[in-house]
Amino acid sequence: MTELRDRRHIALDEPPPIDLPAGDVTEGIVRIGDTVRRPHQSQSYAVAAYLDHLEAVGFAGAPRFLGRDDLGRDVLTFVAGDVAGAEVEPRFRTDELLASVARLVSRLHEASTGYVPSAEPFPQWPVEGTDWELVSHMDVTPQNVTVAGNQATGLFDFDLARPTSRLLDGYNTSMHWVPLADARDLPMGTAPADVLRRLRIFADAIGWTEAERESIPSLGASAADLSRARMKERAEQLGGGWARMWASGVGDVIRRRAAWLRANDEAIVETLLR
User: Fold this and answer.
1) In the chain, where are the structural domains located?
2) pTM summary value
3) How do 35-38 and 18-19 pair as beta strands?
4) What is the phi/psi pair of residue 201, to 5°?
């Protein structure tokens, strides 16, 4: 889209940059005043077009794409709020916040309905299979959500946004926030007995149907298998953050998650339906 490619952010007397936490694969992110500067990537214009759509329909919980600066970096508005650290603090594990995140994602899905990424395709992430419902975030981790009190207020880091389904994006969010994992991979302070209870809270808040609840174990296990294969491929081909994550053992964590979902299929569905 010409207007995206030509848009430039021009500001005089900018304050000095403040380093922001690097993502798993994206480094060099800084805040300058009320803007965030990020390295330009192959999916940047696809994400920009999607953010423009969210702005046009009035979704307030996402950054706005402003253009590129003189260093070629993407410029976006800064989304204010508290954000969890790499080791998620207990205050980001409350049931109230979990439900609020589910409702925020549901509002994002409503705002995304009808958006078709035809002019600016998403180059890094082909559509899973042949069917998709909408474009959505697909990386709603505690580190990518802004919080005020016990309420989720905004989303940022749309690098992995792509065509997907409401259910898959919702499941992916629950995976990070419940969280869904083998007992040995749960964050400190998270009791295995709480996992299914919190998954039910998330399911009720986001509004999964009975059929969707029944599909969660198989959907999640299949998604884990695909995620592990893709991550291994990117670690081998792209290196960088992908290679660091793979070397840290994330592939084993994903494999154990898939095994946990399959082993607990009946318990998960029973909890979600009762």
Assistant:
1) 2-77, 190-274
2) 0.89
3) unpaired
4) -60, -45
